[in-house]
Amino acid sequence: MTIEETLDSKTHLKLIEKKVNEDNMSKENMNVAPTAERLHIGFFGMMNAGKSSVVNAITNQDLAIVSDVKGTTTDPVKKNMELLPLGPVVIIDTPGIDDEKGIGKLRVEKAKKELRNVDIAILVVDATIGLQDADQNMISNFEKLGIKYILAFNKSDLLNNVPKTSENKIYISATKNININELKNLIGTLTSAPKEERAIVSDLIKKGDVIILVTPIDASAPKGRLILPQQQTIRDILDHHAITIVTQVEELEKTISLLKNKPKLVITDSQAFKEVSKIVPTNIPLTSFSIIFARYKGDLETVVKGAYELDNLQDGDTILIAEGCTHHRQCEDIGTVKLPRWISEYTKKKLNFEFTQGQDFPEDFSRYTMVIHCGACMLTQKQMTYRLNVAKANSIPMTNYGITIAHINGILKRSVEPFGL
Predict the structure, then answer these.
(1) Are 131 and 209 within one domain?
(2) Residue 356: inside a domain, yes or no?
(3) Is 195 exposed, middle or buried (0-12, 13-18, 19+ CB in 10 A)?
(4) Are 92 and 33 in the same domain?
(5) Could you tell me the strand order of the sheet in which 398-400 lies?
(6) Positions in the chain short of pLDDT 70
(7) pTM confidence score
(8) 11 lies in some domain
(9) Alpha-carbon torsion 172, 173, 178, 181, what sign?
(10) Is 366 inside a domain boundary?
(11) pLDDT tens digit sequence for 43-85
């Protein structure tokens, strides 16, 4: 490799690193759809099939770095955006699926890991070459995981005869802008099928009901705002014309006493469960944000059953505590400090704890006895279902923070009664 080529490669790598860092540092805007509620569209394909060019053409932005140098995309690049006619989406540009040399093999694994996250996959194929073994393997992965997919044959402007678009196959050219709008429409047809409607709490309430939300403002609360589950719960209640009262633990007793009629439901932050359960009369239904999101994002019955496995833990068992997002951990962090302490005090066993954050979630569960997950507010239903299925496939019980806290405090049965469990 010449000095010029080396410098050119380094320049590309710096640009890539800059782009990835910018995307990773982007924050959720309170006025836009949360990432976990967006359609996730993943772009896959061999190196130099033109994935990044297709991404840029579809989004009409220089979202992904384009280069003739193979392997320019070294890490998945994600971007929240509004994509007409689809609405709010997450676009995911992935590394080449045929980069099997050296560190490239790790990049391929990163690309394949994104299959956990995508609702729709676009496999970009070089139309001048056709489907290769790596493409066929990826198609097999789509079908095995039940992912809807489209085959986008790029560089079709270089063909003498261009085949017609079929149900999930289309010939495009990112550089000539051929059939890009048609590709968007084809994606739209895959998203138009009716989805299972899941409610946060609106199916439990009716117009005019009063719901009290207990949201402690302490050292762990984000400055100047409510956390996402609280925001989404408030919006769900307002959308169905019920009445929301938001208070802290210290004002809860007075809040209840001021009401002419008892509230339909009290929802609390899980960390305040013990204190709140003493204040709320037993004839008023009580649950937590963590529990309602366990139902909204996954399988409530499964994670409730998982909590009872705390009673079967033995000395030396290892518990995986998993969080769906990354955040700055404080000295009294719920996942790494409080839960391990509470569980150890409850079980009176000498236990081992391991921790994961964000996209990290193990495939090998051989050393774990159980998994305790966060409320998954930053994960999609698909991502949470995947994690539940991995634990189930390994015969490992899985529960979540709020359900664990409720069980430890002897109020699990009460906290899931509103859901008929």
Answers:
(1) no
(2) yes
(3) exposed
(4) yes
(5) 352-356, 318-322, 370-373, 398-400
(6) 1-33, 62-75, 85, 100-104, 192-197, 218-222, 326-332
(7) 0.70
(8) no
(9) positive
(10) yes
(11) 999 988 999 899 999 888 765 544 444 445 456 788 888 877 6
Q: How far apart are CA 250 and CA 255, in angstroms?
A: 10
Distance CA 14, CA 17 (A): 5
**How many separate domains does the chain show?**
3
The two three-digit tokens of residue 133, written as one number:
């073994």
Q: Cα separation of 117 and 40, whole Å? A: 7
The CATH number that applies at residue 362 is: 3.40.50.11410
Give the pair of three-digit tokens for residue 28: 């959720």
Interval 102-133: pLDDT, tens: 566 777 888 888 888 888 999 999 999 999 99
Contact 215, 246 (CB under 8 A): yes
Q: Map tokens 């719960």 to a residue.
A: 233
Residue at which a domain ends, from 243, 270, 291? 291
Within 13 Å and on the Cβ side, how many CA atoms surround 213? 23
Q: Is 159 helix (H, G, I), strand (E, B) or coil?
A: coil
Q: Are residues 81 and 154 in the same domain?
A: yes
Whether residues 170 and 213 fall in one domain? no
Sign of CA dihedral 231, 213, 398, 338: positive
**How many CB atoms neighbour CB 228 within 10 A?**
21
User: Domain holding 177: CATH number?
Assistant: 3.40.50.300
CB 266 within 8 A of CB 393: no
170, 191, 212 - which closes a domain: 191
Q: Does the bond joining 85 to the residue before it have cis omega, within 30 degrees of 0?
A: yes
